[in-house]
Amino acid sequence: MRPCLYPPRRGVLCGGDPGGVDGVGELGVDVRDEDGDQVVAGGEVAVNGVGGHAHLAGDRSQGDRVGAARAHQLQRCALDFGGRLIGSRVVTEALQRGHRVTAFSRDASAIINQRENLSWASVDVLDAASIVAVLPGLDVLISGFQPGNAAKDFADTVQRSIADPTVYAAAAQALLKALESHPRTRLIVIGGAGSLETEPGVVRADHEELIHASLDELGLPRQYAAAVRGHREALDVLRTSNRLWTYFSPAEQITPGERTGRFRIGGDQPVLNADGLSRISVEDAAVALVDEAELPRFVQRRFTVGY
Questions:
Q1: What is the Cα–Cα distance from 210 to 187, expressed in whole angstroms?
Q2: Vertex 281, ends 276 and 283: CA angle to 5°?
Q3: CB 28 within 8 A of CB 97
Q4: Which terminus of the chain faces fewer neighbouring Cβ atoms within 10 Å, N or C?
Q5: Is 30 helix (H, G, I), strand (E, B) or coil?
Q6: Cβ-based neighbours of 269, under 8 Å, separated by 6 or more
């Protein structure tokens, strides 16, 4: 068995809003065979070149992933999310894989932990000093930042995002600033789908008609286009950095649904199904994020998922 490129250390997955759902867990190690290929117990992974991007199709059933992770020493990680839906699903996914999770919120003092292996701590993702305080010994920092408390009042988060779309880039800058003193810590940012290319070199966020069509379909106000561009600006901030960052763009349609563990992975263009739709369940997006935290494939790159 070839030694792991990322040996087990402590890690954090961070973002955060007041009262938002966040978390950190002990995540698995890069499991590879003698040829350096990934080993997924009980499942098969096929790699195909599609449109210049590497798409992975495989069976990531929960039992298979837990079995592979438990076969090796686990590392300790922290997760902090402010997203409306995806943050809580990532915490659940990590817990179900047997990881111990530390969840972050801007103010965790009033939160009552009622789940085994889940603890809470306070951090402000817009304050680099606050982030630095939780970094020592941590391995992976994942940010699902949204302004306000999207989990409790999504409409308020939408309005805050419209009022100050620069907040996403500000969060990215604070995270990168904090990582200056911890250059080996990986950062995974959960962003938006608007920065994906509709075709090579054509970004939806740069075209008003394309953005408005998508927002109309999602039932969001057209003014939210400013927030879509704000997410793209956060990605641009990351792309100027030499830190070990990864940017996750979910599918264009992401809703609660079934955890199938079966999806495809893409790069800068959305992954489309047979009907030409880019879609994923929140549950499977969480699978993809915890997979990336356990086994980094997209360091200093963006990735997306879809069926």
A1: 30
A2: 155
A3: yes
A4: N
A5: coil
A6: 51, 53, 196, 197, 198, 199, 200, 304
| Residues β-bridged to residue 247 | 189, 302
CA distance 176 to 247: 13
* Torsion of the alpha carbons at 293, 294, 296 and 297, rounded to the nearest 10: -110
CB-CB contact of 261 with 289 (8 Å): no
Residue 27 has φ and ψ, to the nearest 5°, of -110, 160
84 phi/psi in degrees, rounded to 5: -65, -45
Look at residue 161 and give its three-state secondary structure.
helix
Q: Are 165 and 211 in contact (CB under 8 A)?
A: no
Question: If we measure between CA atoms, which residue out of 86, 96, 76 comes closest to residue 22?
Answer: 86
3-state class of 285 per DSSP?
A: helix
If residue 293 lies in a helix (H) or strand (E), which one and from where to where?
helix 282-294
Structure tokens that stand for 265 in this block: 């992975």
Q: Are strands 118-122 and 101-105 parallel, antiparallel or unpaired?
A: parallel
Measured between alpha carbons, how far apart are the two ends of the chain, in Å? 32
Of 113, 106, 102, give the one whose Cα is nearest residue 127: 106
Q: Within its chain, how far is the Cα of 239 from the centroid?
A: 16
The model carries a pTM of 0.76
Segment-wise mean pLDDT, segments of 10 residues, the chain, 307 residues: 32 33 29 31 22 35 41 49 71 84 78 80 91 82 83 86 96 96 92 91 88 90 95 97 97 94 96 95 96 94 98
Residues β-bridged to residue 48: 55
Round to whole Å and give the CA distance between 232 and 13: 21
CA distance 112 to 180: 33
Tell me, what's the pLDDT at 77? 62
Q: Which amino acid is at 186?
A: R
